[in-house]
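FAQ: What does the model actually see?

It sees only this:
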Amino acid sequence: MKYRIITALILTLILLVVARRASMRQQPPIRESVTLNNLILTHNSTHIFKGDTTSAVIPVEIRGQALSAAERVAFYYRPRVAGEKQGFGDFSRIELQRVPANTLIYRCALTNQGRGTEFEYYLQLEDSSGVALATIPAACQVDKTSTLWLRFEGKQSTPLLIAHIAGMFGGLFFAVLAFLTCFANLNDTRINIQLGRQVLWTVIILFLGTFPFGFLIEYQVYGTYWTGIPVGRDITDSKGLIVFLCWLVALILLKGSAFAKDPTRNLVKVRGARIVVVFSLIVTLALYLIPHSSGNF
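And it is asked to produce this:
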């Protein structure tokens, strides 16, 4: 038993490092430029603005020559459905103002619209009558679908995040331990009971990490508690639910070993127990590799 625990711990750490690197979906900062004659407009920003009172600051740097008195830079934005590329409704407009301390920088701020709200936007250099001279991104001058995007998020509690991660990682540890145990001699009643108890702990810890802790973190960041199936299509929520259900089914099938210390009351024999545990671990690892917040099914 001890060697299985040590092996499971080592494998869990390795799998978590691999899954962490594969599933981290980093959004690179925005850097877009457009040139018009001797004029160069550059927009540097980020996609995510964290904090319930943090506004989205939209800057544009002007190089090559100064804007004429008849030229201005405007910020056009509209809401979009989270995870979707296409927004809805008309674009609203905010004119950028020159930063007094730096004549090369123009800037405006979009007031925080609440946790989880997303906007698509573009920037436009225009004349005094509103005619577009250039846009960022450049493709927006032809059509208004090739836009940039931003999102407002709340800040998550560090202790709560640690509890959530501990739940997901602890669940994986017991899942790997059950995987190793299922290849031992399950005809031995003691080992069969160990397998059932390991599956039980997998379900308990995954439940805590996925639901109570996961719900609260999602509310802190996005202002919602659940957006996965069956009420939504968010991948992060949905994959957590699928992993939990896989192990819940495994627990039901091994209920005799898990709850009554009696493998004869299991709903599957030894071969079936191995199949269901291996299948559940494969599903778990596959879904752990899907990046967080990577869209909808």
